[in-house]
Design a protein that fits this description.
The chain has one domain: 4-Layer Sandwich (Metallo-beta-lactamase, Chain A). The chain is of the alpha/beta class and 282 residues long. It is globular and about 55 Å long. It contains seven helices and 14 strands. It has helices at residues 22-30, 55-62, 84-91, 114-126, 191-200, 224-236, 259-266; strands spanning 2-7, 40-43, 47-49, 71-73, 108-112, 135-139, 145-148, 151-157, 169-174, 179-183, 206-210, 245-249, 272-273, 279-281. Helix 3 (84-91) packs across helix 4 (114-126). A seven-stranded mixed beta sheet has the order 6-5-4-3-2-1-14, covered by helices on one side. It has a seven-stranded mixed beta sheet with strand order 7-8-9-10-11-12-13.
Length: 282
Amino acid sequence: MKLTYLGTGAAEGMPATFCACPVCLRSLREGGKSLRMRSCALLGDDVLIDMGPDIHTQKLRYGLRLDQLKAVVYTHSHEDHEDMYALHVRGTPSCSVRPGVPADQDVLDLYGSLWAFKRFEQAVSEGPKIREERFRFHQVEAWQAFHVGPYTFHALRANHRPIVVEDCLIYAITDGISAILYANDTGELGPEVDEYLRKSGLRFSLVSMDCARGLLPGDGHMGWAECLRLRDRLYTIGAADSDTRFILNHLSHMNDMTHSEWEAFAAPYGIEVAYDGLIIEC
């Protein structure tokens, strides 16, 4: 199973667009891996996890064939993860030409919660040229497993927004050989996640952890302390072992560290730091 980090930054990007805080200025000077687009990951070659406002730049930078994209799986409906304009472009025939593909097969499958579905409906209603038949939306809920091509996604409840506002999701993903935990946009996870994973029998090759809060206490995002506790919890329930790679993702200027500073800080703990363009082969 292959996971490509197309973007590893939080909603404001890194350095943040209009920010001149010390770490944003240091990141700008450092360049390279310290420059982060909004979070988005590619599973294999044709399944996206989230699709944010940098998707066109990501296509150009990495030479992506997004015309061959089969599905997008959304974690939640925030604009940095579910970009409406990208759906406008995909759903408008004059903007998305796919020669040789019959109209009844020119369909992009979308997976997400009720809130993600409502945002999709809004995009369709606001785009007079959008062909709704170019999409198939599959509504999913926490604690539900579903199949996307060769992958099984286990939807787990995130701790990102109050559930009355939106029931956000993270995903455990397996192809039957290896497994990944993609834990973006969440604070410390509830104990029911441990119980679900324990019963699933999944053992992760890769655990991708939200660390937007850096050394600050966690809230709707995890910080360093919450990431360490998540690793310990996964060890305890047998979902991770000494071969599991733990990688920090969804980084922001709240971290107060550039990429090289994070690498030096996290390396003694055996934890890696994601960067845009990083490819993980499980």
